Structure to design on (229 residues):
């Protein structure tokens, strides 16, 4: 069966420090990968998605970047964190659209607090 | 632009009650609709997925229906239990060239009182 791992679970970082959040998926190949941010009262916001290695699309301009160095690895990064980057970050995967159903599956999330 | 609305924003019911959560979307050109559950501080857990060609899906005490033409879905929970307390979110997957993208509602916070 497929599983998704996301770490760390919580992170407290000072303003201006770098960020690296990692997500890996097991038990599937060529997944679509996603980074979402969830803010109170604003719902889930899609930050990045990837349909393959090295293929990253950004949904919103921001202080963050994403990379996909391997088929089942997705990394969210920042060179210098801002206070506004605080939030709950969720990694997700799905089979490619066209695969029957294509459900979306989420990791357990990372609570990031920028101080 | 696809918009997804969930009503009510919060719901409190006594244990054992049957209940319905509502989800509406503005663009009927969807690939599928998915219902999720989120416990505080946790990720989202997939409950049910309905393809655009389907009318309903069932899993245990949960039943989700889809009326694509009217832009509505409902999640029916039978014989509610305190363990059902959580936030329930619906999401629609866009069709066509944007089929990588899902639009989420803001969720319904359900509290089942013992």
């Amino acid at each position: 069966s497929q599983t998704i791992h996301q770490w760390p679970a919580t992170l407290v970082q000072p303003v201006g420090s770098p960020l690296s959040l990692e997500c890996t998926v097991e038990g599937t190949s060529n997944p679509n990968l996603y980074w979402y941010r969830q803010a109170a009262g604003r719902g889930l916001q899609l930050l990045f998605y990837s349909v393959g290695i090295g293929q990253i699309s950004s949904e919103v301009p921001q202080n963050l970047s994403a990379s996909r160095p391997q088929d089942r690895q997705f990394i969210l990064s920042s060179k210098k964190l801002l206070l506004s980057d605080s939030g709950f970050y969720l990694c997700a995967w799905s089979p490619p659209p066209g695969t029957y159903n294509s459900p979306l599956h989420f990791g357990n999330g990372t609570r990031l607090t920028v101080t | 632009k696809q918009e997804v609305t969930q009503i009510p924003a919060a719901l409190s019911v006594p244990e054992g009650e049957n209940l319905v959560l509502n989800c509406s979307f503005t663009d009927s050109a969807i690939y599928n609709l998915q219902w999720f559950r989120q416990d505080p501080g946790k990720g989202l857990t997939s409950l049910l997925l309905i393809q655009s060609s389907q009318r309903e899906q069932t899993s245990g005490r949960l039943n989700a229906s889809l009326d694509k033409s009217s832009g509505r879905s409902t999640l029916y929970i039978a014989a509610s239990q305190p363990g059902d307390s959580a936030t329930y979110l619906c999401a629609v997957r866009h069709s066509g060239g944007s089929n990588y993208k899902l639009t989420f509602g803001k969720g319904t916070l359900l509290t089942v009182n013992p």
The interface with chain A takes residues 31-32, 34, 36, 41-46, 49, 51, 89, 91, 93, 99-102, 104-107 of chain B (CB under 8 Å). Chain B has no helices and eleven strands. The two ends of chain B are 41 Å apart (CA to CA). Chain B has a mean pLDDT of 94.
